[in-house]
Amino acid sequence: MKRIVLMGNPNVGKSALFARLTGVRMISSNYPGTTVEFTSGKVKIGPEFMEIIDAPGTYSLEPACKAEEVAAHILPAGDVVINAVDATQLERNLFLTMALLKFGKPVVIALNMADEAHHKGIRIDAGRLEKILGVPVVETCAISGEGIKQLAGRLADAKANSFPHQDHERWQHIGNIIQQVQSLKHHHHTLLEIFSDLTLHPATGILFALLVVLACFQVVRWIGEGFITLLLDPFFNVVWQPWLMRLSGVLGPDSWLHYLLIGKLFHGQINYAESLGLLSTGIYVPLAMVLPYVFAFFLVLGILEDTGYLPRLGILLDAPLHRLGLHGFAIIPLLLGGGCHVPGILSTRMLESRPQRVVTAMLITICIPCMGQTAMIYGFLAGSGALGPFIIFATLAVAGLGLALIAKAFNRAEIPEMFVEIPPYRLPGFRMLSLKVGLRTRQFLLEALPYVLLGVLIMNVLYSLQVIKILGNLAAPITTGILGLPADTTASLLLGFLRKDVSVGMLAPLGLDFKQSVIACVVLVMQFPCIATLVILLREFGTKDTLAILTIMFIMSLAVGGMLNLLL
Amino acid sequence: MLVSLTEMKTNQKGKVAGIGGGHGIRARLNAMGIHEGVWITRKNAQPLRGPVLLEVAGCKLAVGFGMAQKIMVEVLE
How close does chain B come to A201, measured CA to CA in Å? Predict the structure, then answer.
């Protein structure tokens, strides 16, 4: 089977183009570096099927970060190259095009975002460009799907080595080409451009960033709570509960199956938070306590991503983050990690140096609770008002700052400097946004539901076999001695390895007081990664660095938990 | 007059006259369109030696302070 490689600068719409060509649904955003690993799919061109690979964006064939390395590595494996070019930035994009033309693989050019270029008053003579470069040039708009068929149809005309030139003369050639094929109509500053300047201005920018962060938190809470009070709680109380009670009657309260599926009854009633049955707590926790917030978080994050605000936030925060030993763009993985650690750690690939990636991943795993945990922490501490969550998040923030500074002191490597393209602001499109939120939410459900159910099952089995007691006694010197928690908490702490949200849920039946609850939550966040995160850590950083992160996590969780035990 | 990018004023234009530093940094700047002879406009700079923003060939870029110090620009008085 022939192989097509999709190459281009970051943020020119390669993933959207890939989705159009293959029908595979992909996540795309408005910042350079959304795609950090390659995805492949199949496309039917004429009578034959071809494999198509979506490579991460790159500015040149000399890689400067992990994602660009992946791109440069994929290129030789292709038989044909589709070079996606941003029509609104033709001049800069042609630099990579020239390198590709010289590389020796047949090339076809997709002149993408043709419609946006048109709006900006940029006219490009595609026919002329095709003649000069000697390879097919097809105008496309990946968002609407225009030109995709024509692009596929021209693959057969792809040519290699069609524009011989010396490397050091490249910009000169590009200048000549631009003069021949591109004409600009003078255009006035649009509102979005003025807005762009304001959000990057040192004074107004920080103010705006604060507003954005506050607004995001509020909106996530508002959407999450809305779903729960208006939809999910009514469903579970009015529809699910009577059904479960009927099942409970059939099974009989003392049977083994009742214990497993429905769990303990409190005054003859099911308590979704504490019954610990597969069909009660096991379903309620992921669907009615975590999912609404996860969905809301992905929606808000998706809007932030698609407007193009995230790289601006990275630029604003670059100077302060450098003082913590981090690159400004580390804010993007850190934010993503607030949703789920797995995509957060993967997106560290957009950072240039390995030490940077390891430190950012470590901060995510140790000090940033994922959305599932955050939702459960709020739910668990709901009775005691805002003080509990505040203490928890403030503790995590201080621990994170401290950890970053310690890592900086140990890290001899220089922090790479900011060097990035600022994408224009765009209004998020409904289709792309809903697709992205849908994909991420589905992924959450597929991962969360089985693990939560498994967690509840294991917990029940361990309880009934008295293993919990034994483990609790063994770990008592640590849990009780250092952290001041009852021995029973050991099991829920250990269960955090499976999934952290469910293990916060397991704390509910233990009857902890306020201080113990806060300490248990903090320790759970910091103690060790859930199994999915561990797998990603091992894959991205290898055994040695992962072990180092695990050791630091364990020490940090005990130190911080012990400190809280003394202070509170 | 020859100044570094960090010494330029907001919205001042100039022509890149040279780039200090090693091959790696020159190659990266080159791939993004910053090379000798190209016209650039300096935009906002972030405080505390934060990134300097600039516009080149209709494209907006953010360049770290240290890197920006290495970009020498010929500006009109």
Answer: 6
